[in-house]
Amino acid sequence: MNNKQHRNKFLEVLDNGVNRFADLSSYFNKVIIISHNDADGISCLHLMQNLLYRMNLDYDYFIYNRSVSWKNYLEGILSKRNTDKMAYLFTDVGSNLSELIPIIENRNEMFFILDHHEVETNTDISSHPDNLIFVNPTLYGFDGLEHIAGATLTYMFAKKLYPQIIKQGWLAIIGIAGDSLKSMDKLQSFNKEIYQELLAEEVFEDQEGLILFGSMHTSILNGLKYSILPFIPGFGGESKEKIQTFLNGLNINPKKAVKDLDSPEIEQIQKKGGFESYGRYAILPQKGGLLSFAFEHALLLNILCFKNISAAVSIIQLQNITRYAKKVYSEYISNLAQNLKILSNELPRYETDKAIFIRIRDEIPPSNWSDTASFSTVNELLDPYKVLLLGGLERKSHTIKLSIRCTRKFLKQNDYVGVNKIISNIKRELGGTGGGHKLAGGIRLSVPSYKRLKQNIEQYI
């Protein structure tokens, strides 16, 4: 990502992509959408499906989860006919240009990539093959998390082609809420602009109050117990009896909905609870219960993407949550709150000047390591100026599996050397498999390599 923002240049590139797609659309027999397996990606997928339907274009879609190389993944998707009458449209995924360009340049189809992840190669944009239209705001100084979600970019592209797509803008709100991980009053740049545009069009509702993301749809008792953003030490993962006693002492009904709390009640809860969490959040009025809260809706999609991708793709169009999805969500949020409590209070750790190692044995299931690491970092439960390496022995492979996370404070203090660079350094010296981005990634190492890593972690940062 460039440090200097070039807004006009980015918008020029976006317009060029829109114009090329518009000019060629009548020529395409079919468009294949390939999107990411998370809330942002699923939102992008549905925005594109709506657009292509309105344009009377035949389409199909596939979901990519980054678990395999692009070469292996696309082998079963790319048409054997290799015809220029077909187009491939990537949303929220596809910036691995060192992998993709060798594939694309040998094809006749057009490839459109709309992505907000950092480009993983220094390939010269001017040398891209003629059949690739690549639109990525990080090349022009914009941050893919702070400034523009994948759904924001996809919405901007779709709206230029079909202005009425604004009515489907609530999909962009889900993507923004799920990717930004903050209250809506803290949005920046294009995310903020699109949020305000859609609010003016009354596509969704903007409300102000106590922020307990993950549990905005429930009672204040459950909100304090199961909030994951912020995770509130002393309440998160604690017993209902303890939280009920606290609320009764404030003369606040524990069953009162979070969204129905008045200003004096919110002030009391924060003052006596010793935390601050107030801001704006998005409501989708056409939906009910959990699905009406944009962050919770996005979180549910993220959970389902790893549990049941078909359920994730379908539930975004439903007005009410299914019994299956509700059960999956409740289990996830309960486990995560409990795991964050365990991590912040109970797990032994080994610290150096720039790193924190937490080796888990049986306290937290391996399937929960990644999300526990992510939300502990987002909540800054540990030292935000140190990189977190959380994991343990994976019995099947007899290797150490590590989820590695850092904060933006860490990046600024370490010349923007992030997790992806750290993992590359580790693999070069110690072997192992894995990868990631600046803020998050993972690696598997042999036990001896893990021991060497702990002894010499500073040299890899």
Report on the architecture of this protein.
With 461 residues, the protein is an alpha/beta fold. It has 17 helices and 13 strands. A six-stranded mixed sheet has the order 8-9-10-11-13-12. The chain has a five-stranded parallel sheet with strand order 2-1-3-4-5. The longest helix is centred in the last third of the chain and has 23 residues.
Q: Describe the sheet with the most strands.
A: 6 strands, mixed
Question: Stretches where pLDDT falls below 50 for ≥5 residues?
Answer: none
- Helix and strand content put the structural class at alpha/beta
Query: Mean pLDDT, nearest integer?
Result: 93
Q: Based on the coordinates given, report the CATH architecture of the largest domain.
A: Alpha-Beta Complex
Question: What labels would you give this structure?
Answer:
single chain; 461 residues; alpha/beta; inorganic pyrophosphatase (n-terminal core); 5-stranded parallel sheet; 17 helices; 16% strand
Topology record:
Layout: H1 7-25, E1 30-36, H2 39-54, E2 59-64, H3 70-75, E3 86-91, H4 97-104, E4 110-114, E5 132-135, H5 150-161, H6 170-180, H7 189-200, E6 205-210, H8 220-226, H9 240-249, H10 263-273, E7 278-283, H11 294-307, H12 309-315, H13 323-345, E8 350-351, E9 355-359, H14 369-378, E10 387-394, E11 399-405, H15 408-413, H16 419-430, E12 433-436, E13 440-445, H17 447-456
Parallel strand pairs: 1-2, 1-3, 3-4, 4-5, 9-10
Antiparallel strand pairs: 6-7, 8-9, 10-11, 11-13, 12-13
Helix pairs in contact: 1-5, 2-5, 2-6, 5-6, 6-7, 6-11, 8-9, 11-12, 11-13, 13-14
